[in-house]
Amino acid sequence: MLKTLQHLLDDPQLTYIETLQALWSGYGEITRYYSPMRAASVIVKSVTPPQHVSHPRGWHSEVGHQRKLTSYKIEASFYQSYAHHCPQTCYVPQIIAFSKQQASDAGQILVMEDLQHLGFDDKESVLSLTDIKAVISWLANFHARFIGHPADDLWPVGTYWHLKTRADEFNNMEDGPLKKAAHFIDSKLNNARYQTIVHGDAKLANFCFSDLDTTAVTEIDDNRDNKISSVAAVDFQYVGKGVGVKDLGYFLGSCLTADDLTQRHNELLDYYFKTLGLACNKYQPDINFSALEAEWRNLYSFANADFHRFLQGWSPEHHKINGYLKAQSDIALRYCT
């Protein structure tokens, strides 16, 4: 691998630093190297699909395998064609080099900027309301930037849990109102008038904060007075078309308890739409923002119900199936009867 990367980057002095993590189900790894030619470290995401897949939750299928392979190709397309269109307000690491591995048609090497070298860290021990709003601001600016974009080289439906790609999980669901309404909810989201590009896996772990020392998330702390200069996002395997509130609901569910979600619901949604409106003024001045906001506010409960449907089939005891998610699903289900 080292010689391959040295040749790819035209840097014979490139050196290995560390392995950061394995990819899901053993599909490769993410590593850090130092490039003397660039006087900076770089991140390498190498995809080498295994011959025998071992899914952590026991979901093994050819459909899932092909979904993962496609996701890596789409991620490469995003970094090659979209990343440079993302401003500082929704920063993503820029691509440095890309190569398909000749040993496997499905293998690839993606070399990107190292966000740590640029002053970003992964996540933090105590998540403040300011931190949450910083990520919401990233989402709002990202969504505004790409409203109406055709995105033909990305997923036709962004997110990893949408109904068409999760037939096994759907069939695994117990019969009930959510299963009965699943196709209606899916259609409602996919046929919305206003579509953008969604990150598709906007959990806290995929956001990096600048000027902060971050570890694991435990709670919201309203008393912390940290000023975040910017946020960056990684992991664009499931980026594609969708309504922005799919990312918003998924992100909030990844970092807040049911009680916090219930208490902060109005405040956080209002903040998202306020920031989205300001960003649309900049990037989409001709859009009817009042109509967009009305549509996406209505679809927020549908976005939550859609994710709830996936969890019910994939892992019905999952901790994210909490009182808030159930309440949002109930709101959506009222429109389905």
What is the SS-derived class? alpha+beta
**C-alpha end-to-end distance:** 56 Å
Number of strands: 10
Mean of pLDDT = 89
User: What is the count of helical runs?
Assistant: 10
Q: Classify the beta-strand content into a percent band.
A: 15-25%
Taking strands numbered 1, 2, ... along the chain, how are they ordered across the largest sheet? 1-2-3-5-4
What is the secondary structure topology, with strand pairs?
Blueprint lengths: L1 H8 L5 E8 L5 E8 L4 E8 L14 H20 L13 E6 L7 E6 L6 E2 L7 H17 L21 H6 L4 H4 L1 H9 L5 E3 L8 E4 L20 E3 L6 E3 L1 H12 L2 H26 L5 H26 L8 H12 L3
Helix pairs in contact: 3-7, 3-8, 6-9, 7-9, 9-10
Description:
The protein has ten helices and ten strands. It is α+β, with helices and mostly antiparallel strands. The longest helix is centred in the last third of the chain and has 26 residues. Helix 7 packs across helix 9 and helix 9 crosses helix 10. Helices cover 42% and strands 15% of the residues. The strands form three sheets. Strands 1-2-3-5-4 form a five-stranded antiparallel beta sheet, sandwiched between helices. It has a three-stranded antiparallel beta sheet with strand order 6-8-9, covered by helices on one side. It starts with a helix and ends with a helix. The protein folds into two domains: 118 residues, Phosphorylase Kinase, domain 1; 218 residues, Aminoglycoside 3'-phosphotransferase, Chain: A, domain 2, CATH 3.90.1200.
